[in-house]
Write a structure and sequence with these properties.
- With about 170 residues, the protein is mainly alpha-helical.
- It has 8 helices and 2 strands, in the order H-H-H-H-H-H-E-E-H-H.
- A two-stranded antiparallel sheet has the order 1-2.
- Strand 1 and strand 2 form a beta hairpin.
- It is globular, with a radius of gyration of 17 Å.
- The relative contact order is 0.09.
């Protein structure tokens, strides 16, 4: 029988706290937030929370990266719900920023606000292709796939009827 070696996930956490795609590479805030939303206890949560906090609180960071970091903090169950509710009132959020906010709200249990925001986002940016649904943010295919995949995650967590059509688009276009 062949023995399967399971990698130590902590090898993928950098000294700065983020999660890298390879043990010897740099961490990415997007990858870190996605992974921690799935496996919050697989990594050192203290340095991960510090990593996300530094990004979220750095005035030099983009608003989008800050929202990704807030999603990461929400996945670690940090008490940032009030901050998220304030941000939800901003009128000029991009589709991706709204999606990160929706995912963070979902992590912290504010399904009512997350549902309202996701319904509006799908209505405004969703493109129904009969058997599938994509979030057409008008950029290149990579951006559309990213927005559609984040929407699929949120739709699945909030049990939206569109979740299967979103997944169909991802299966057909990856």
């Amino acid at each position: 029988e062949k023995e399967i070696t399971v990698p130590n996930l902590l090898d993928y956490q950098t000294r700065a706290g983020g999660i890298a795609p390879l043990p010897y590479s740099e961490a990415g805030v997007g990858l870190s937030a996605k992974i921690v939303s799935l496996y919050p206890t697989a990594f050192d949560q203290v340095i991960l929370a510090n990593y996300f906090s530094q990004i979220a609180n750095d005035p030099q960071e983009s608003r989008e990266r800050s929202l990704v970091a807030l999603w990461g903090l929400a996945s670690l169950d940090k008490p940032i719900l009030q901050e998220l509710k304030i941000i939800s009132q901003y009128k000029n959020l991009t589709v991706l920023e709204k999606l990160y906010l929706i995912l963070a709200l979902t992590e912290l249990g504010d399904e009512q606000l997350a549902t309202q925001m996701l319904e509006k986002l799908i209505e405004e940016a969703g493109e129904d292709l009969e058997t599938s649904l994509r979030i057409n943010i008008g950029k290149d295919q990579d951006d559309i796939l990213e927005a559609t995949s984040l929407t699929a995650i949120a739709a699945n967590r909030l049990d939206f009827p569109e979740k299967n059509k979103l997944l169909n688009y991802l299966w057909d276009n990856n």
